[in-house]
Design brief:
The chain has 21 helices and 4 strands. By secondary structure, it is an all-alpha fold. Strand 1 and strand 2 form a beta hairpin.
Amino acid sequence: MFNLFKRTLLSSNQPSSLLISLTTRTRVNTIALPSTTRIQTRRMSVSAAAFIEEHEKKVRPVEVQASKAWWEANVSGSDEAFARKAELQNQLDSFLSNNESFAKIKSIYEDLRNDKVKEDPITKRQIDVLYKAYLEKHVDPSLLSRMVELSNQVEKTFNTFRAKVDDKELTQNEVSKILKESKDNTLRKKAWEGSKAVGALVEPTLLELVKIRNEVAKKLGFGNYHEMMLFLNEQDYTELDELFTELDGLTTKPFQQLKKGMDEEIVQNLGLKSTEELRPWHYKDLFFQEATKIGNFDLDTLFADKDVIKLCAEFYRSIGLPIDNILEKSSLYEQPGKSPHAFCIDIDREGDVRVLANILPDAYWMDTMLHELGHGCYSSKYIPSTLPYLLRQQSHILTTEGIAMLFGRLAKNLGFLKSMKLTPASELEELRKTCENTLKSQLLIFSRWVQVMFYFERSLYCDPLQDLNKKWWDLVEKYQNIHRPDGRDAPDYASKIHIVVAPVYYHNYLMGEMFASQVLASIRKHLYPGQDRKEVGLVGNPKVGEFLIEKVFAVGNSLSWKELTKYATGELLNSKEFAADFE
């Protein structure tokens, strides 16, 4: 999300077309959609048709402008760009908060739900999408405007913030380098604390946002904002809690075994006396959420003298999903004022797709760019133009994250690395062990980290007046087994950008990992029968692109995420294949 660490950013105060996507405009009219979603020849009802047409006429041009403004704000960091972004978002909110429009869409929606009016599945899906969009904004416009204003402030703070260490400002990449490489424990602590300082800057604004978000949710009949956002995203807390509880049981023991070995290695490398001395800054990323290299082969050396962009372009071309036009419009390297993160945005659902990144030649950025360009492939390039504008996007946050994660994993896949001619023959066995163990650590570490985020956000919106600093570290200790800093009482939770500007989003990353595992299992079953799951690297096989177009991309948002998962993989979302991937 981002380097918005897992990586693509989306919030309710960002343009809807940010929902990630890709490159050159391609019509895919020959792909057959599942029978339940084929566009019917019978005319939709006049009221539904008129409402959809009027909505698109008013909203679509402003959405495109808002997406361009959002892009410019994140690339330049300028006050003018952020002001333009807020102005356009307020226009969109004004359209969606109109009482007369809401009354119309609510009436149409309820008639369809109660079978008073019959419509084809495509029309029903559009109305369902529109109803949820209007419902979220059916509150006092002054509240919506204030939310946009506050979100804008916070986003700008994150984009322009630089950690200070001994009076020197460090970029995000420089902080990451210290945590990855330095053996100076004092410097590590300073870099970690310097990065966390953004939390104190944004916490007051965040708490005001939480208050307003909860107020909005309660006015719409929900218990709190967390509950509302799950509903709007076609999810249910009880179902998610059951799923995450199951994942907790599956991952606890292997994670503890993994971390024990990691901790012992860190103690030795950093010259500590025992694992009891370990604190958050002794780990290799700010939130202990990223894969840690396990093995004697340094994966960064594979990319140190390589062009990450050239490698990505070569790979995607080889599977029949060229990305050249995305790269031409993207902003890929560091510059002053620019967001320090990474994301992909579909500007217009007509093929104008871009990636923002801050690339360095290492394994992390190889993973990140494969990931972001995977989002790009799940966009208006391969979602057919025959689908209505409203459905010309991914089915759900978790499905696009799943596709991105599917591709990002390849940076640690031996089959991929061999096919891309990145492997040194003399160290092949050591590389194999490192790849397998590093991918396992990625899935386990990330699954534990997402539990922290999911349950913290739930707690934040259920009880925002509690001691949130303590709650954060209680969850970190429970799920990640990391000792809280001694005597520290600071809003470290607020240094995680998703909590502030992309609320109730993060759990979809873990569900995306599960979706990725299921889709990969389907690809192996159909295209690589009998091959070792750890060796399937996808390179040079155009049928991979064909499979993804037919089973995922071409469906767009005509199916819910549950229906799409069943259509693409033959099963509802479950933990079976995900668990097999970290065995």
